[in-house]
Each structure stands twice: as structure tokens, then as C-alpha cells.
């Protein structure tokens, strides 16, 4: 009886700890008034719309908006989304926008002070500064940089150690969120871009762009929300009906960092792009998957869990076309179904390696002027991309595999562990710079005149 009483007490204590350690299931950004500040997340932590303005850094200004979702994938408050969308339509009526969506991952949220929010703010500042620098070089007006932070309950408990056990619980929630309100929000943002283009006197001169970035389970959310749209974009290309032209994506670029979803979900996209084999010089990146070779959460824990959860599923070997020689290659469905997309060898197209060790004296970031110079050069190098090509990003080098077609717009990149040390380490300055450059390369105008201006800054002609 004594043992039973002790066990009951411990059981009750465990339940109490589990319940009291749960993270809040609520919206954090409940104030719809625009907050203008040099540190908006500190000065007005409940604001849905935060305008960064600092007289000492006028080129770094941006707008940050928050839209939040519950555990079932529904909007916490539809009026919160409407406030954001209405404000963006008003801004788009008078200027071009560069909209960057960020969907956080495991253990994060939209709570004030979250490290992912701080990291996103820093990236928006630098993108805005680069926009201003590019504007001075080209004569085109700088776009208004807008960040949209999509928040969900990435951590279900707060107890250290216990958090690690929530991996599969949060994976299931991520897919719910991805199949829920996120799809609506992303499509509403895409409609802003399309509307701006439709009302322009010359659609090719519209410079409003949309980029979506997801990390960890945020990557799973984004892919769940957009995978069908991405497949449609590959078939319904960006050109005359009935002609093979550039592959469309969603918005202008989708970036997934250490995404936690199985490679089999990515199979249709990888198979289609391999079959095509040739891409025009004007083809820009459409989707980029970045996975660290040291991301042990998706490298080891992920396949272990998938192995058990797929035991009763039937699998077979399939064949697909090699992108270079056109020969058949065999894909093991079972392996693809238990391996995270970024770790599945047959789907990898690139390796991103560091060019040197970072030390305590290493600068946090390159100068804005150097970033702008590099942008013009990288835009040209992407146009000249081919199998086995090497593109120098300064502190990192992107190497395309010999089995991947040049300018293949679906990039699956294995990342050097010096650049991304583990699953949650995504704030290395070199990686941030790499992603920013991809965003700007993919969001450049389709206007031939503007492309020629950019080319002149590389060739000097």
C-alpha cells in the first residue's frame, strides 16, 4: 500500500509539473496600433505592426508584422491578419514592397524577446540597407522592406530536457498549422504581389516581391502549405501557354532551413526538375532547402521516429531520370520515407562550405557596400550556373553537384557544420548573408533594362 501511495503521489506530481510547465496557448500581439520605435519589440511588445525607425540609420527602416496561429492551425484572431493585410495593401498602393515571411520552428513562438524575432529584425535591417545601396547604384527606387512573422506554439513545455521529448508532438502540430490558416495568409500576401503587378502600366517593371522562409518545423509548415502550389508552378510555367519557359514557384522564393519533413514529400518536385534537365539564363531560384550536416535532430532522431511510424506502410523501388546523362536511377522509397529531405543523398544538389574559420575578431557582417557589390556579381554568376559550378559568396562557397542541372531552381543544399552547428543554430552571420543574397537575387526585376543595368556593374560596360 505504501509503494502504491508513493507511486500515486509521484504520478500526480508529474501531471502537475507537465501542466504547469506548458507554454501559453495564446496570441501575444493583440494591439493593432502601429508602433514606431528604434527598438519596437522592447517598447511595444504587444503590437501587431512594428515600424523600425532610427535617425542614426535611416536606410535600415522596415515594417514588422505578426500573424499568429493556434495548435489546430487556425488563426488566433482573424482581425489580426486583416489589420496586417489592409496595411500592406495601403503601402503597396504608393510604393513597391519586398515582403519577407518568416515561420519559426521548434521551441520558438511570437513571444516578445524570442531569439528568432531578434534574428529576423537584424536580417530585415540589413536587407533594407542593401535595398538602399542597390537603389543608389541602379537609379531604381528602393522598395519598402516588410517582414511578416508567422507565430505558432513551437514549444509545448518550458522545462529544459523535457522540451527535447516534444519533437514528434510539435512535428504533428506543424503539419496541422501548415494545412490550416497559413495557406490562407500566404495566398493573401501573394495576392498583394499579383495585384501590384496587374495594375502596373508595364507588368515587367513591377518590383513588389514575396519571399517565404521557414526554419525547422517552420519549414515543415511552409512545405505543407505550399507543396501542391509549387508542383503546379513547375507545370504551369511563367511564359506563353504551351511553351516550356521559366519554372514558377510561390511568390519569388521559398527558403527552408533545417526543415523537419521526410524526403518522400519532396520526391515529386525533385523528379520533375530532374526530367527537365535544361533551364534558361533568366531562370531564378524557386525553392532552397538548407540542411546542416550537423543537424542531428533531423539526421538521427527523425529517421528513428519515422522508422517506427512507417513500419506498416508498403514501399518499393522507383526509377527517375538522371538530370545530366538522362539515364534511369533507382530511388528507395523506404529510405526516402524515413530520411529528412535535406539528408537524402539522391536529392542533394549543392554543398555550402565555409571559406575559413571564424574567430573572436571576425566581423559580425560584411559592410553594406561589400554586400551590394557582391549582389551584382552573384546575380551574374547565377545566370552562368552549370553542373559542377562554384559560386563564391565571400565567407562561404556554393558548389553545385556534377549531377545537378545548371540553374535548376530547386536547390537542396548540404551545409558545412562550421556554418550551421546544429538544428537550432541559424544565426551565423555567413549563413544570414548567404540567405539575404539569395532573397535579393530571386526578387530582382524581370525588366530587361534593369537586368542590363545590374550586369553593367559587374562588367563595367
What would your notes on this structure say?
The relative contact order is 0.11. It contains 13 helices and 14 strands. A twelve-stranded mixed sheet has the order 1-2-3-5-4-6-7-8-14-11-13-12, sandwiched between helices. Strands 9-10 form a two-stranded antiparallel sheet. With 461 residues, it is of the alpha/beta class. 41% of the residues lie in helices and 18% in strands. The longest helix is centred in the N-terminal third of the chain and has 24 residues. Helix 11 crosses helix 13.
| Low-confidence runs of at least 5 consecutive residues | 9-20
Task: Report the structural category.
Answer: alpha/beta
The overall average pLDDT, rounded, is 88
Provide the gyration radius in Å: 22 Å
Strand order of the largest sheet: 1-2-3-5-4-6-7-8-14-11-13-12
Largest sheet: 12 strands, mixed
Assembly state = single chain
Percent helix, as a range, is 40-55%
How much strand content do the residues show? Answer: 15-25%
- In whole angstroms, the N-to-C terminal distance is 90 Å
- Element-level helix/strand string: HEHEEHEHEHHEHEHEHEEHEHEEEHH
Number of helices: 13
Q: What's the β-strand tally?
A: 14
Question: What overall geometry do the principal axes of the alpha carbons give?
Answer: globular
Amino acid at each position: 500500500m505504501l509503494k502504491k501511495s508513493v507511486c500515486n503521489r509521484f504520478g500526480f506530481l508529474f501531471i502537475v509539473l507537465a501542466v504547469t510547465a506548458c507554454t501559453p496557448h495564446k496570441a501575444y500581439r493583440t494591439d493593432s496600433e502601429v508602433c514606431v520605435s528604434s527598438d519596437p519589440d522592447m517598447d511595444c511588445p504587444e503590437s501587431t505592426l512594428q515600424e523600425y525607425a532610427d535617425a542614426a540609420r535611416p536606410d535600415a527602416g522596415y515594417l514588422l508584422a505578426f500573424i499568429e496561429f493556434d495548435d489546430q492551425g487556425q488563426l488566433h484572431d482573424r482581425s489580426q491578419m486583416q489589420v496586417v493585410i489592409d496595411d500592406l495593401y495601403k503601402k503597396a498602393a504608393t510604393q513597391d514592397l519586398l515582403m519577407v515571411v518568416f515561420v519559426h520552428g521548434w521551441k520558438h513562438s511570437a513571444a516578445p524577446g524570442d531569439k528568432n524575432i531578434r534574428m529576423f529584425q537584424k536580417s530585415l535591417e540589413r536587407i533594407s540597407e542593401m535595398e538602399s545601396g542597390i537603389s543608389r547604384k541602379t537609379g531604381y527606387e528602393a522598395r519598402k522592406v516588410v517582414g511578416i512573422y508567422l507565430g505558432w506554439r513551437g514549444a509545448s513545455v518550458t522545462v529544459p530536457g523535457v522540451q527535447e521529448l516534444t519533437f514528434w508532438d510539435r512535428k504533428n502540430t506543424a503539419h496541422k498549422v501548415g494545412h490550416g490558416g497559413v495557406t490562407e495568409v500566404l495566398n493573401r500576401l501573394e495576392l498583394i504581389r499579383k495585384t501590384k503587378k496587374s495594375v502596373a502600366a508595364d507588368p515587367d517593371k513591377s518590383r513588389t516581391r514575396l519571399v517565404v522562409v521557414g526554419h525547422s518545423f517552420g519549414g515543415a509548415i511552409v512545405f505543407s502549405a505550399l507543396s501542391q502550389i509549387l508542383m503546379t508552378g513547375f507545370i504551369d510555367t511563367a511564359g506563353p501557354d504551351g511553351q516550356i519557359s521559366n519554372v514558377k514557384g510561390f511568390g519569388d522564393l521559398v527558403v527552408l532551413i533545417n526543415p523537419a519533413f521526410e524526403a518522400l514529400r519532396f520526391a515529386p518536385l525533385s523528379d520533375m526538375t530532374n526530367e527537365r534537365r535544361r533551364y534558361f539564363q533568366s531562370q531564378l531560384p524557386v525553392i532552397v532547402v538548407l540542411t546542416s550536416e550537423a543537424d542531428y535532430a533531423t539526421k538521427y532522431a527523425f529517421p528513428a521516429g519515422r522508422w517506427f511510424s512507417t513500419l506498416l506502410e508498403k514501399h518499393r523501388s522507383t526509377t527517375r531520370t538522371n538530370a545530366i546523362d538522362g539515364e534511369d536511377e533507382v530511388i528507395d522509397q523506404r529510405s526516402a520515407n524515413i530520411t529528412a529531405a535535406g539528408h537524402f543523398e539522391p536529392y542533394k544538389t549543392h554543398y555550402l562550405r565555409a571559406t575559413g574559420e571564424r574567430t573572436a575578431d571576425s566581423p559580425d557582417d560584411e559592410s553594406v557596400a561589400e554586400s551590394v557589390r557582391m549582389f551584382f556579381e552573384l546575380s551574374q554568376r547565377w545566370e552562368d550556373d552549370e553542373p559542377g559550378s562554384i559560386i563564391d559568396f565571400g565567407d562561404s562557397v556554393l558548389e553545385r553537384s556534377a549531377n545537378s542541372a545548371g540553374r535548376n531552381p530547386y536547390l537542396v543544399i548540404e551545409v558545412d557544420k562550421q556554418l550551421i552547428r546544429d538544428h537550432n543554430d541559424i544565426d551565423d552571420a555567413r549563413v544570414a548573408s548567404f540567405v539575404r543574397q539569395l532573397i535579393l537575387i530571386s526578387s530582382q526585376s524581370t525588366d530587361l533594362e534593369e537586368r542590363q543595368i545590374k550586369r553593367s556593374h559587374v562588367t563595367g560596360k
